[in-house]
Amino acid sequence: MERGLYTDDHEQYRSVVQEFIAREVTPHLERWDEQQRTGREVWLAAGKQGIIGLTTPEEFGGPGLDDWRYRNVVYEELMKAGAASLASSFSLQDDILIPYVCAMGSDEQKQRWLPGMAAGELIMAVAMTEPGTGSDLKGVRTHAEKVPGGWRLNGSKTFISSGQQADLVCVVTKTDPDGGTDAFSLLVVEAGMAGFERGRNLKKVGLWAQDTSELSFTDVFVPDENLLGAEGRGFRQLMQHLPLERLAIAAGAVAASSAALDWTVTYVKERLAFGQPLAGFQNTQFALADMAAEIEAARSLLDRCILAYNNGTLTTVDASTVKLFATEVQGRVVDKCVQLHGGYGYMLEYPIARAYLDARVQRIYGGTNEIQRQIIGRSLTGVR
Length: 384
What we know:
The strands form three sheets. The protein has a four-stranded mixed β-sheet with strand order 1-4-5-8, covered by helices on one side. Strands 2-3-7-6 form a four-stranded antiparallel β-sheet, with no helix packed on it. A hairpin with a 2-residue loop joins β2 and β3 (about 150-160). It has three domains: about 10-120, Butyryl-Coa Dehydrogenase, subunit A, domain 1 (Orthogonal Bundle), CATH 1.10.540; about 125-230, Butyryl-CoA Dehydrogenase, subunit A, domain 2 (Beta Barrel); about 235-380, Up-down Bundle (Butyryl-CoA Dehydrogenase, subunit A, domain 3). The chain has helices spanning about 10-25, 30-35, 40-50, 70-80, 85-105, 105-120, 235-270, 280-310, 315-340, 350-360, 370-380, and strands at about 125, 145, 150-160, 170-175, 185-190, 195-200, 210-225, 225-230, 270-275, 275. The longest helix has about 35 residues, at about 235-270. The chain has about 375 residues and is α+β, with helices and mostly antiparallel strands.
């Protein structure tokens, strides 16, 4: 089926991404998994090659691209290479944190942080989740007290992606204990600030090469110039940027599903059982057909949402819908693909096994799929 999403410029960029992955990513995947983090060198190479920082304005060292199709090309190629951890890490920088700084940062903050982020010299993390709160951000207990010249920050965070390597951490914190929805602000903590400690590099089911950490803040002084956005507006600011985060998760899900299907088609053509290729069995063909149809449906929805984002019309409900559907499809597809691989699908030397592990978190982060169902359901019923 003719997709019609990309132009020749996008396909030329795809060649650049493929060359980057062959040189800077594929040879290091196994080592990154073993050390449970990527090397800093891949970030620097990505910045030099124009793989990250795509939306960073030109005056702050980026190409200033406002076309999210280029980001989707990066997703598709990284997933083909089995580099889901790197795709997730780059997405955190490009689809969450650079947009935060671009939208909420002062001119001084943009000048201070964006050039390094676009170049891969500065890695930024966002610290939302706490040991006692996940999707419900209103339960955040980390708090900051106003003091002369800044804030005194105390609290702890967990499940923080890029937490071990981050040079900057955007911390969601309460700045007004009685402020309700307006109780939260975003404070940017810098590596080396007194009282900022990194805990364990957490061992996860999947995405092994993306470092994920516990962080703690004990009387950390954060200067006024590191308040990102307006005081007390943190919760509302975060909500405004969730659609892009969910679009990015959906894009990763569709790209990963497509890669899993391609690997499986190749495998069943080569693998023999009872004297014939697995591809010759009706059960195999039916399973492949079902997966292809689901992926095509998810891709069509994703493409429509990408174009809506480009023209500024992507809604919260649209983003929740594509995130929900695409990640549920991903879960079903990788499970069927493992089954068609048989015992080899359970071996980590095969990319489908890693894809199976990496897929599970997609239905959890960015707001669990139960949260997405609630958002969609409320839009249909008007009942809150």
